[in-house]
Amino acid sequence: MADTVNTIAPASKDENGRSSMAAVNTDPNQIEGESEAARIERLGRQRPEMLDSIWKEAGFVFSIAMSQLLTEYFVSGFTVIIPTLVRELDIPPASTTWPASAFSLVLSSFLLPFGRLADIYGGFYVYLAGCIWYCVWSLIAGFAQNELMLDFCRALQGLGPAAYLPASLTLLGAMYRPGPRKNLVFCIYGAMAPFGFFVGIFFAGVAAQYATWNYYFYIGAVLTFVTVCVAYFTIPNDTAEHKGNGVVQDWWGSLTTSAGLILLVFAITDSSHAPDGWATPYIYVTLILALMSLGAAVYVEGWVAEQPLLPFDVFRIPYMRPFILGLLFTYGTLGIFLLYATL
């Protein structure tokens, strides 16, 4: 069905008396006699105009969906190679949780600030920058010689998905109209998470069994590099659309939220290995600072920031609070189980 309907205007005469026929283009989103529901259904099945070929759309969906796969790859597979890392890098038992925790800690702490950057500058550059950063530090992690270098690389790795995950949702949400095509693309996007979980475990097991643990990181870096190349040529640049949109960064909210989350997770994670547990001075001092920072974040987001990172209105959406609570218990327990079951 054509998107544009051309109608012929009635014959008219110019000032010299000559007859002329004028072609008039009607609204390309309207078809005569079409109901509103049918129009929405039809438009929802069409390929976006900015993706001018099926191959470009396939590349766009592939590169965006890979963001889910790559993130889960370095979450699930890393738990498989932890015993090998503990042995070869001589990591003490009290520190085995940090190589796994550093990645998720940084990712979760900087997700909201990078999401705001995608709102300000568009998802294209934020997505590419996040993937390139991820690729570089995944490669460097493969050359880690000790625990400190590995922890450092894993922490900096986390900045990559913190940038490209919110950017990927920005790009997907803006590219497709509501409808069957958008639903299908989001299904593919979501399905890549469990698939990436399996891919990470598979390659980690193969690397540990038949090569060295380094190849697990090298394979991840190669997959990320391929994603960067495809994304560069298939993702439309949306920077101009976001220019001058009036969105600003919430710097105080970013600072207090990120600092509070980092300090809180550090205190909880390290308390089980500290000399005196929760009674260890640096543990309870860190916990107090974390609670103060998070309290300041609540104040900033609720009463200070003009454009808060996390508006309180989001919690007034029906069923949002139990939904978030369910996610907390689901993903929180899953991460703990994966780590300690491996150890």
Q: What is the element layout, followed by pairings?
A:
Layout: E1 6-8, E2 12-13, E3 19-20, E4 23-25, H1 36-45, H2 54-88, H3 97-109, H4 111-121, H5 123-141, H6 147-157, H7 159-175, H8 180-210, H9 214-234, H10 239-242, H11 251-271, H12 281-304, H13 320-342
Antiparallel strand pairs: 1-4, 2-3
Helix pairs in contact: 2-3, 2-7, 2-8, 2-9, 3-6, 3-7, 3-11, 4-5, 4-7, 5-6, 5-7, 5-9, 8-9, 11-12
What do these coordinates show?
The protein has 343 residues and is mainly alpha-helical. The protein has 2 domains: 52-249, MFS general substrate transporter like domains (Growth Hormone, Chain: A, Up-down Bundle); 261-324, no CATH class. It has 13 helices and 4 strands. It has helices spanning 36-45, 54-88, 97-109, 111-121, 123-141, 147-157, 159-175, 180-210, 214-234, 239-242, 251-271, 281-304, 320-342, and strands at residues 6-8, 12-13, 19-20, 23-25. Helix 4 (111-121) packs across helix 5 (123-141) and helix 8 (180-210) runs antiparallel to helix 9 (214-234). The radius of gyration is 25 Å and the shape is globular. The model is unreliable at 1-27 (pLDDT under 50). Its main location: membrane. Keywords: Membrane, Transmembrane, Transmembrane helix. Residues 18-28 have a biased composition (Polar residues).
